[in-house]
Amino acid sequence: MATEQPKDILGEINGFVARIHALDPHAPAGTELTVRVDGRESRLMLSEPVVQALRLALQDYHDPRDQGYCDHCGGPRLDENFQCRDCGGLNGVFGQMLAERAFGYTEPESLPPAPDSAGRHARHES
Q1: pLDDT at 1 (0 to 100)
Q2: What spatial distance separates the first Cα and last Cα of the chain, rounded to whole Å?
Q3: Which of 18, 95, 114, 118 could form a disulfide with 90 if both were Cys (CB 3.0 to 4.6 A apart)?
Q4: Closest Cα partner for 14 from 60, 48, 54?
């Protein structure tokens, strides 16, 4: 499924910087960020609060397609069924359950009901 791309990525970045900078407008700008997209360029002077916000936004982003790492090969490409796209292994207990169901796994016979005998935790009527 393709995600919708913002029409103006430079405008999005400028808007992010402006929103964060407005929270601490007197913080001195000490970092320059230059972004060039399709021949258009934007130079932004970033204050420390903006740099921190940008860093956190990038670190905290989680792509919904990211299912984690493979237990078998360590690769980062698990599909929605927890099967590794690199080695083909099924990941974790959930992946194993899916594999058993998909490959015709049959449930073992159910256990018979417990007898009505007095066990060691049964109450004794005296």
Answers
A1: 45
A2: 70
A3: 95
A4: 54
Count other C-beta atoms under 10 Å from residue 85's C-beta.
12
- 121/102 Cα distance (integer angstroms): 41
Burial 2-18 (b: 16+ CB within 10 A, else e): eeeeeeeebeebeeebe
Dihedral (CA of 26, 14, 52, 43) sign: negative
CA distance 11 to 3: 18
The half-sphere exposure of 39 on its side-chain side, counting CA atoms within 13 A, is 0
Q: Which element (helix H / strand E) includes 56?
A: helix 48-60
For 45, how many CA atoms within 13 A lie in the half-sphere containing its CB? 5
Phi first, then psi: give them for residue 33, nearest 5 degrees: -120, 125
pLDDT (0 to 100) of residue 117: 66
> What does the pLDDT profile of the chain (126 residues) look like in tens digits?
455 555 789 999 999 999 999 999 999 999 999 999 988 899 999 999 999 999 999 999 989 888 889 998 999 999 888 889 999 888 888 878 877 787 777 777 888 887 776 666 666 565
